[in-house]
Amino acid sequence: MALLEVKNLSVSFPTADGTLHVVRDVSFSVEAGDFFGIVGESGSGKSVLVQAILGLVPGAKLSGQALFNGRDLIGLPAEELRRIRGAKISMIFQDPLSSLHPQYTVGQQLVEAITTHQKVPKSEARSRAISMMRKVGIKDAERRADSYPHQFSGGMRQRIMIAMALLLQPELIIADEPTTALDSTVQAQILDLLSSMQRELNTTVIMISHDLSVVSRVASQMMVLYAGTCMELGAADEVFTSPSHPYTARLLAATPSVHNTEHRLRPIDGSLPSLLAPPTGCAFAPRCELADERCRGTLPPLEEHRSGRLAACFHPDTELAAPEPVIARSAGQQEGAPPIISAQGIKLSFSAGSWPHKRQVNVLKGVDLQLFEGETLGLVGESGCGKSTLVRVIAGLLQPQEGSVLVEGQELGAPNTESWKQARHLVQMVFQDPFGSLNPKRRVGSIIADPFMIHTDLRGEQLKSRVRELMDLVGLNPEHYNRFPSEFSGGQRQRIGIARALALKPKVVLFDEPVSALDVSVQAQILNLISDLQRELGLSYIFISHDLSVVRHISDRVAVMDRGQIIELAGAQQLYENPQTDFTKTLLAASARS
Amino acid sequence: MTPQKRLMVPLSLFAASAVLLSGCAIDTGNSSTPTGEAQKGGILKVGSNGDNDHLDPALTSYVPTQNFIRATNRQLLSYEASTDENTRIQVKADLAEEVPEATNGGKTYTFTIKEGANWDAADGPRQIVAEDVVRGFKRLCNPYRSSPLLGYFQTLLTGMDEYCAGFAKIEAKPEPMAKYINSAKLPGVRAVDERTVEFNLKEPAGDFIYMLTLATATPAPEEVLDYLPDSPEYRENFVASGPYTVEEYTADKSLKLVRNEAWKPETDTLRKANVDSIEMTMGLSADAVTQQLQAGTLDMSFDTGLAPSVAAQLAAAKDPDFSTVDAGSVNPFLWINVDSPSNDGALADKKVREAIQYATDKASVVQTLGGEAVAKVQNGIFGPGVLGYHDFDLYPTEGHKGDPEKAKKLLAEAGYPDGITLKMPYRNKDIEPQIAQTLQAGFEKAGIKIELIPVSPTDYYTEFLVNREETKAGKWDIAPMGWSPDWQGGAARSVFQPLFTYNGTESTYNLTNYDNKEADKLAAKAVQEPDAAKAQELWAQVDEIVMGDSIIVPVAAPTTRLYHSKRVQNFQPYALATQGDWTNVWVQD
Amino acid sequence: MSAHTLTPAAATAAPEVKQRSSLRMTVDYLLKDRASLIAASFLVLLVLFALAAPLLAGITGHPANDQFRETGLTPAGVPVGPGTEFWLGADQLGRDVLVRLAYGARVSLIVGVVASLAAASIGIMVGMVAGYFGGKVDTVLSRCIDLVMSVPFLLAALALVSVLGASLPLSVGVIVFFSWTSLARVIRGQVIALRQREFVEAARSLGAGHWGIIFRDILPNLAAPIIIYATLMIPSSIVFEATLSFLGMGIVPPDASWGGMLAEASGNSIYLTAWWLVLFPGLALLFTTLAFNVLGDGLRDALDPRTRRKAK
After folding, report:
1. Structural domain boundaries enclosing C160
2. Which of A219, A253, B369, B489 is least buried, going by the fewest C-beta atoms within 10 A?
3. Is C310–A58 a contact, with Cβ atoms under 8 angstroms apart?
4. What would the pLDDT profile of B533-551 be if each residue is shown by its tens digit?
5. Would you say residue A333 lies in a domain?
6. A352 and A218 share a domain?
7. Could you give the residue ranges of the DSSP H alpha helices within C207-275?
8. Which residues are the signal sequence here (chain B) (predicted)?
9. CA geometry: angle at B413 spanning B410 and B415, to 5°?
C-alpha cells in the first residue's frame, strides 16, 4: 500500500474576485521509501497541494481524498492533523531562519522538538539531538548545539532544519523548496544530504521545487504540475531526459544549460491561464504549438503512454520544433579600443552592527574591472561576495571609499554632481526583483516616463509616444500604458524595468540578477530579449547572476568574484572549460551537476 | 471672587480702620428646631473638599475654618450661634466677663477675663490671662508669617505700627521672635493685671468690638513662642482653649477633634459642646458631599456648597434640613472699565454706563443662579445684611429684567445709535460661564454686543482685572466679579474701602481707581458713628452716591445654602463660619 | 515560488481577468463589513444632522443661542426635560439641546476633519523627511517627535490657551500640534522600509532628486497608512476639542460644542436633576468617536490585508 495516496484532489479558494481553482483533480501516490518530486512554476499549485492536505492553508476548500497510511487526511479535525504533522510528517521550508526561533539555541529547539512529541528525559533528548546534528554534517556538534540560529550560515541552518525533521523518525518528510534560498554550491550539498538521509534512514520524502533539474537529481519519482493540473508523472531521471508532455519538453528547452551555447533559448510564449476561470481543455493548450481543437475543448486524461510514465496529453512524445541557432554577435571585444567603463581599485566597506559590536565589513577589497563596448561581462559569485555592491558602485548608487570609476574616460562623481548626472545617460541599471523595482502605486506609463521627466523637457504627447515606442521595443503592449505594475506578470514587469533603463539610450546596462526571480519559461523570454536588444542597440552589459548556466549563455567574458575580489576573469568558453582557481572549479562542479 | 469661600486676603492693603459686623439673615426660618432635649455624645461627621487654611488662629482667613477655630479656641468676644439673624450678630462675651463700653472718648476698651477659663496646657489646665491676649496681638506681625487681617488692627491700635516695624527686623526664627515679643512694648494692648486687659485705639471706632470676635484676636498661650506660627511643631503641640482639641490631623485628608478636658462648661455660655468628637473627612467633591448628606453618611459640610439646581429642588420640597443664610455678598456685580479705549472710550461717558445699567437683565441671572430661593436681585454696593444695605434702585426696570429700549435710547443719546461692543472676561469655573452667557443674552437685546473671554480661574484677577496695564489697554470692558465682606454684619467698611476709595496709591480691587470725595467723607463719619441706626443711614447715602456714578452694575446677592443630615439637631448657623455651629449641634440617630 | 501561489495577484495576471482597482476593492470590502457600513451610515447621518442645524432651529423655532427663560426654565432656573416644546429638553439657560447638539456637531466635525488633515500633513512631511534622509536629520526630527510626545498635552494645551485666549483656530492649532507625532512615527517607519525598496534605488539610478523620489515614489505608497491614521485621528481630535471645551478653553460660549455642553451640565451639578444635559451630548460624542474608530479599523482591514481579521 502506498504511504500517501492522493485521489482526485482539488483545492480552491473563495476570493473577492471569485473562486480560485488552485489545484484541479490531481491524483498520485507515494510509496514508502520513495523520493517523490513535485515540479512546477509559480501558480502551478505545487505548494498549496501539499500544504492543503496537511491543513496548513486556512480558508481552502478541498475535495477528493488524501490517504496517509490508508487514513483520509481530508476533513480530519485540526487537532488530529497537528498531531500527525508533528509525529508522522515533518516539514522543511525554504527559509530556515524564519522557521527557527531566534532566542533559543538550536540545541534547545531540537530537544524541544523531541520532548513535545515523545516522553524522553532531557539528557537523552539532547544526546539524540547532537548525534542527529552530526549525522546531517554539522562539525563539532556538541559545541554548536549551544549556538543561536543567526550564528549559522544559511546552509547550516537548513541542515539543522533537516536534523529537526529527521529527529522524530517521521514516516514522511515534506521539503518545500529546501534549497531555493541557497547558493549553488551549498544547494548541491543539501541535496546530497537529503538524498543520503533518505536512503540511510529509509524515510519517504516529498520534495517540491520549481527547478526540474534539481528534482531530477535526487528524486526517484517526479510529478510535473501546471496551472493546478498534473501534466506528467514518472521516473524522475526519465522525465528529465525524455519528456513525454510538450509542457515538460518546452520547460527543459527554456532552461539555459552550461553545455548548450549553440542554440537560442526557447521560451514558452504566453502566460499562465487565470485560475479564476481555468480553460475547459488542456491548461497548457493556449501556449502549446501542438494544440488543436480537441486540446482546447477537452481535458486530456492522465494516461500511461510509456511504461511507468503518465502524461495528460493528446499528443504525447511528439517531437517539437528544434531551437534556433544563436545569432552571431555583431561586435566582440575590439583589440586596443578603450574600455567604456573602467573601475580601478574599488574599495568599499560598511560599518555593521551596533555599538559596542560595531565593526567594519569590507565588501569590496580593491576591484579592477573593465567593460568594453558591445560585450557582455558576466559576473558570478556566491551571495555576499560583493557583486551587487560592485555594480551599484559602477551605477553611481554607492560611493567607494577608495578607487574610481571611469565612464568613457570621465570620472564618475559623487551623486547629484554634474558628471554623475551625465553618467545617467550612459549607464543604466535593471534590478533583480521585478516586483520590488517598480513602484506599485504608479502607472506603467509614468514609470517608464520617469527618466524623460528627470532629464529631458519632453512632455505631453511627445513623451507618451516615446514611452509607447519603448514599450513596443521591449515587447509590451503599448495599450497597457495606464496599468499598474501589479496587473502584469513577473516577466512583463521585468520588460518594464528594461524599458525604463533604455529610455535615455544608455551605452551600458547593468543587470543585477534580472531573471533569478522569474520562472524558467519567462526567464528565457527575458534572456532572449536582452540578447536581441544588445544586438539591435549595440549595448554593453554587465550581467550578474548566481546561475552559471545563465551567465554562460549570455556572456562573452565572465568574472568570478569571491569575498570582495575578482579572482578569475576570462572568456566565457575558456573559463568554463578550463577554470584556473579552486573556487571556480567548485562553483562549476556544483552547477554542472544540476 | 467666590462668595463665602475666602476672606479677602490682601486686607493689609486696605486703609480700613474699622469694621462693622453685619447681620446675616436667615431667609427660610425652617432650620431644624430641636426636637427634644439636647443629647450629649456621638460623633459629628463633617465632609469637606479642602482643608483648613491654617490651624493657627492668628493666620486663618478662610471662612469655613472659623468653625474649627470656634471649637478649639476662645476669643474675648464672640457670637451666639442662632437661626435668628439679629441674635446671631450680637456681640457676646466669651472669655470676657462682659462686653465693655468704650471709655476715653471711644478710644479705650477694658476687658476682664473669666476665672476658670483655661488653656489645655501639657502640664494641666492653666488659667487664660491678660498677657496671653497681649501675646496674641504681638504675634500678628511676626516676620515669619504675618496675619492676613493684621491691617485692621495695625492701623487702629496705638503703637502697633512702631511695634511691627521693629518686629520686621527680627530674624524669622522662634527664639529671636520670642525674645522680641517678650521684650518689645505694644502700647495698644496692655495687661493691667492678671485678668484685665486694656486696648488703646488711635481714634474712636464703633466697630472695634466686632473686630475682637475675629480669630485673629485669639489669645496665644506662652507655648506658641517655642515654634514658628502654624509650623508642624505648632500643630503637634496644639494648645486648645475651646471645648475641643485636635487629636489627629493629616493635612488634606482628615481631622479629628475630641473633647478638651481643661474646658469648663460653666465658663462658656456660647458653646454647649454636645457631641463627643468631630471627624472631618477631606478630599470629597461637592456633589459627593451633597449625596452623602442625603444618605446620612455625613452630617455637615465644611466648605462645599449646594448646587443651585439641588437647592432649588430642596427649597421647593421645603426640606427641613435645608436653609439659607445671607452672606452679605454681592455676586455678581459688573465693574465697568471707564479707562477702556474700546468704542472710542465710550465707557467714560456716564450715559453709556447708565445704558449698561438699564440693559442688565438681573432677573435672568437670579434664575440662572437657582431662582429666588437662593439669590436676590441686587441694586446697591452693599449686600443684604451688611449694615448700610437698603432697598433702592437708581436704574429701575420692570421685574429687573432690564429695559433694552431705554438702554438703546441712552446709547443713541450718547452718540452710539448702533450700539457698542464690550469685551467681557469671565472665570471659567462652576456656574460663572453660564452667568456670563445669561448677561450676554440680556445685553444683546439692548444692542450691546458682548465678546466673551473665558479665563482660567487662577489668571482671572492677576492677568486681567487687577492688572492696571491690561485695564488701561482695554483688554476688558466689563467684568463680573463678586465681593464678600470680610465677615458677616457691619462690614460696609470692608466693602467700601477696598473697592471704592482711592487716595493716591492704588488699591488692588478698585479696578479703575474710582474716587468720590463726598462718599469718602460720609464713610469716614459712618465708621466712627457708634449708633448703628445712624451708621446705617450714613452708609446708605454712600451706597447711593457710588451707584449714582454708575461705576458698577450690581446684579445679584446669592445666599449661602446650608444643608445637613437628618441626624443633626439644633443646627444653628455661626455668623463667622456661615455654617451650622459644631459646638452646639447634637446628633440623634 | 511557493509564496506566490497563494496570492491572487500573481495568479490572475492573465489578460482576460480584469484587475479591479484598489479603490474598488476597498469599497467592496467596506460594503461587506457590516460594522463599517453602520459606522459610515451614522457619520453620513451626523453630517446631515450638522448641515440641518439651521433647519432644525427653524422647525423648532429655537435659534441655538436664544434663551427661552419662560418656556425652557422654571422660575428657579431648572430646565424642562425632553417634550413637545424641547425635543431633547432645554439646557440650564433655556436653550434647545437638540439645536445646540446640531450646531455642536458642526464644530466637532470641522475641528475633527480640519485638525486631522493639518496634523496629517505635518506628520507626513516630518515622517517622510526623517525616514528618507535618516542620519542627523532623522535624529533631530525624531527627538522633536519625542519631545512633543512627552509634553503632557492637556497641561500644555491649557497653558497655551490661557495665555493666548480661547478660540476655535487656537483649539485646532493646539490639537494639530499634539496629534501629528504618531502619524509622523508611522510614516517614518514606513519610509525607512520603502527607502530600501528597489524602486527607490531604481529612481536614484535614473538620477531622480531626493524630493522627486519622496513625492513621486514614496508618497503614493503611503496612501494606506495615511488614510487609516487620518481617519483614526479624527475621533481623537474631536475628543480633544471636547476636552478643551469641557475645560472651558475651547469653543467660546455661547456657541455650542459638545464638550462645552457637557461642561455646562457638570460645572453646575445640574446633571443631578437634568439628565438630558449629559446624556445627549455624551451619547453624541460616544457614537461619533466610536463610528470613526470603527470606520478606521474597517479601512485598515480593507487597505491592509495583512492586518485583516480572519473568518469573514
Report:
1. 32-56+79-311
2. A253
3. yes
4. 888 899 999 999 999 999 9
5. no
6. no
7. 210-212, 223-246, 258-267
8. 1-21
9. 115
Most B CBs within 10 Å, among C92, C100, C155, C251, to test the B interface: C92
- CATH code assigned at B515: 3.10.105.10
User: Which domain range does residue A579 map to?
Assistant: 341-591
3-class DSSP assignment, residue A585: helix
Tell whether B312 is within 8 A of chain C (Cβ): yes
Q: Domain check: are B338 and B480 in the same one?
A: yes
User: What domain range includes position B183?
Assistant: 58-231
Which residue of C lies nearest to A393 if distances are taken between CA atoms?
A: C205
**pLDDT at residue C22, as a whole number:** 64
Q: Mind listing the pLDDT tens digit for each residue in C190-238?
A: 898 888 888 888 888 888 888 888 888 888 888 888 888 888 888 888 8
Quote the CA–CA distance of A197 and A161 in Å, as a whole number.
13
In a domain, C13, yes or no: no
Distance from CA of A304 to the nearest CA of C (A): 29
Identify all chain B residues contacting C269, using CB atoms and an 8 Å cutoff.
Answer: 286-287, 290, 307-310
pLDDT of residue B487 exceeding 80, the answer is no
What 8-state DSSP symbol labels residue C217? I
As a whole number of angstroms, the distance between CA C108 and CA C50 comes to 9
CB B467 within 8 A of CB B457: no
Q: Which residue of C has its CA nearest to A504?
A: C206
Name the domain count of chain B.
2
Q: Do chains A and B touch (3 or more CB pairs under 8 A)?
A: no
Q: What is the pLDDT of residues B318-352, one digit of tens each?
A: 889 998 887 778 888 999 999 999 888 889 999 99
The β-bridge partners of A6 are: A28, A66
B65: CATH: 3.40.190.10
Question: Using a CB-CB distance cutoff of 8 angstroms, which residues of chain B are in contact with residue C73?
Answer: 367
Which residues of chain A are within 8 Å of residue C209 when distances are taken between CB atoms? 416, 454
Question: CA A404 to CA A402: how far, in whole Å?
Answer: 7
Distance, CA of B404 to CA of C239 (rounded, Å):
40
Q: What pLDDT does C5 receive?
A: 35
Q: Are residues B346 and B227 in the same domain?
A: no
Residue A384: inside a domain: yes
Contact C236, C163 (CB under 8 A): no
Nearest to B437 among C73, C249, C254 (CB): C254
Task: Mark whether A551 and A584 lie in a shared domain.
Answer: yes
Domain end residue (candidates: A168, A195, A212): A168
Reported as a single tens digit per residue, the pLDDT across B33-78 is 555 678 888 999 999 988 888 899 998 878 889 999 999 999 999 9
Residue B68 maps to a domain: yes
What pLDDT does A336 receive? 67
A235-273: pLDDT as tens digits: 988 888 888 999 998 888 888 776 666 677 788 877 778
Q: How far is CA A533 from CA A473, A529, A530, B28, B62, in A?
A: 8, 6, 5, 106, 95
Residues of B in contact with C74 (CB under 8 A): 312, 371
CA C233 to CA B570: how far, in whole Å? 59
Does the beta-carbon distance from B315 to C76 stay under 8 Å?
yes
Q: What is the mean pLDDT of residues A293-297?
A: 88
Residue A422 main-chain phi, psi, to 5 deg:
-60, -40
B291 vs B5, B31, B373, C262, CA distance in Å?
Answer: 21, 19, 20, 20
For range B83-107, the mean pLDDT: 88
Boundary of a domain, candidates A168, A186, A212: A168
Residue A327 resides in a domain: no
- Over residues B402-461, the pLDDT tens digits come to 999 999 999 999 999 998 999 999 988 778 888 999 999 999 999 999 999 888 777 787
Q: Which residues in B lie closer than 8 A to residue C272 (C-beta atoms)?
A: 287, 290, 307, 309-310
pLDDT at A410: 83
